[in-house]
Amino acid sequence: MILAKPVIADRYWILKKDNHKVGEIEVDNNGVVVKIQNTVKRYTTIKMLGRESGIEFAPVETSTVVHGNQAYGYDTGTPVFNVLWDVKHKLPLFTKEDKSKSWFAAGWYRVKQHRTWKTVQNPKLITLQRYTYQGPFHSKEEAK
C-alpha cells in the first residue's frame, strides 16, 4: 500500500511505501498529477485518484498551537504560527496568525535593496525572494 502524506494541505503530497519515498502528488490548474518513479499519471480530481490508484491519504496534521516567540531557535519577537523549514533556501518560516497567507523568515537578515544593505528582523519571504540577502542570524549584532 502507498500512503500519501500531506506537505501542503490539498495541494502537495509525498508518496511513501514502507517508509521510503516513491513519488509525489501535486494539484495544478489542470487536475492532479501523480509521479511514481518514472511514471506520470493525470487525474481530474483527488477522489478519482483515490478510487483508481489505491493510494491511501494520511490525515492532515494541523496545528493551531502557538509556538512561542521562536521558530527553529531564531527569536521572532512575536507569537508564531505554522512554523516550517524551507529546505531549498534553508530558511525558518512562520506566519503571524493561524490562517495567514503571509510568510516571514525568522531571525535577523542583511538585505540589499537598491545598493544599500539593511539589517532587518523577520522579513517577509517575498522580500528575500526578490533581493540579495545574508542570513539568518540569531542576533542583530551577529547580522552586522
Question: Can you walk me through this structure?
Answer:
- There is one protein chain.
- The protein has helices at residues 46-53, 125-130, 140-143, and strands at 3-8, 12-17, 20-28, 31-36, 39-43, 56-57, 70-71, 74-75, 81-86, 91-95, 104-105, 108-113, 116-121, 132-137.
- It is built from three helices and 14 strands.
- The relative contact order is 0.12.
- A hairpin with a 4-residue loop joins strand 9 (81-86) and strand 10 (91-95).
- A six-stranded mixed β-sheet has the order 5-4-3-2-1-6, covered by helices on one side.
- The chain is elongated.
- It is mainly beta and 144 residues long.
- It folds into two domains: 3-57, no CATH class; 70-143, no CATH class.
Poorly predicted sequence stretches spanning 5 or more consecutive residues = none
Radius of gyration, CA atoms, in whole angstroms: 19 Å
Number of strands: 14
For the record, the count of structural domains works out to: 2
> Which series of helices and strands comes N to C?
EEEEEHEEEEEEEEHEH
Total DSSP helices: 3
Shape: elongated
Main sheet attributes: strand count, strand direction, barrel closure: 6 strands, mixed
**Beta-strand fraction estimate:** over 45%
| Helical content (DSSP H or I, runs of 4+) | 10-25%
> Largest beta sheet: what is the strand line-up?
5-4-3-2-1-6
Estimated structural class: mainly beta
Distance between the termini: 52 Å
Mean pLDDT: 87
